[in-house]
Give the backbone structure.
Amino acid sequence: MISTSSILDRPALVAWYHRNRARSRALFGMLADEAYYSQPIALRHPIVFYEGHLPAFSFNTLVKKGLGRPSIDAALERLFARGIDPDAERTLQTAEVRARWPTRDEVRAFAAEADRQVLDALASGDVERPGHPLLDRAEAVFCILEHEAMHQETLLYMWHRLPFEQKHRPTEYAPRVDGPVPAVECIAIPAGRATLGVDRESIPFGWDNERPAYAVDVPAFEIDRHDVTNARFLEFVAAGGYDDFRWWRPEDWRWIENERITHPLFWERAGDRWYWRGMFEQLPLPPSWPVYVSHAEAAAFARWRDARLPTEAEFQRAASGSAPSVVDFSSWDPEPAGSHPAGASAWGVEDLIGNGWEWTSTPFAPFPGFRAMASYPEYSADFFDGEHFVMKGASPATARELLRPTFRNWFRARYPYVYATFRCAR
Ligand code: AVJ
Ligand code: FE
């Protein structure tokens, strides 16, 4: 039989898997040993989980579920299967956590065997089978590769919260803090169509929430050329924005009050000065950097400015013709807003793909005709709950393989840890 339509470039996929594993190894290798069982974000598992989760997910999805092969270690495969977005804080203490999780050597031995079997499948397994629920168009292959790439961003924003002395700083790295604060400028986008989704057959892989093709008419609107910078957000903080319920949704205001939140999580105060918590050091607040905030804070700022967040469709329309700016691990921190004008969209809107995910006002929901993917049915469907909002674009920690226009990200409104910024629309 002649197979004319194979999309499987095995050497490229093997190379991608190796690239992923090497980067994950480098990220885990950055940390001091004492960080291994710690939990830099209370809502997420301790670090040990992720070193097991990446190979376990790849093995479970491609080798076990896809190819029907037997377990390596059923208990570890279950332990490391899933760990995203729990809605209540885990309160286990470090000693208990340590007792529940395997040793690092056990994790690594399991990972080595999982890697061996996954690589074997990528190199020569029967991983592309038309009509097979998981292997049609080699879905499970792309699923595991993109999954690991996405979690590298999870790792970075977790590492971001660790004490500086638990991270090895690359010797040549210095955050880029030059650059003037760009003036606020609003760009008018005329009414027109935006394409949000994509059909299964038109690209090698897309997650279930990107499908099927879906186009919408977008009325005329205006959008900021630049992300809201720290300098601009400081005006909101200084004007008492965190003390005034009028700017906040009731559920967000309860969070602000209960947690006594007075500024973005990435900001720190010492004496009468503001600082930015960078990956490796505390910096005097760089005024030209895009502010990183939760959806709740972004929406409050927009309301204070008599504006709003753009919808997902507006983002998509504004972004057409954009080139990536600060992405693919090119920096450990943001860069000044407006320092990559060459990436501007056809309308002149800058930094839409890079330098920080962009919050939208659109609750994460399926496109008409959505079907959960067989290789990972819970991936999106578990989060269609009205509590999660769509983020578009990319951050400095988003792998280049994820930079397609239809890619959608999402988080809860009050999740302040991610590299997410915003701009205003009207
Ligand atoms: C799509 C980034 C929201 O990190 O919670 C990883 C990605 N899902 N493993 C997350 C994901 C399962 C997910 N986000
Ligand atoms: Fe995962």
The chain has a mean pLDDT of 95.
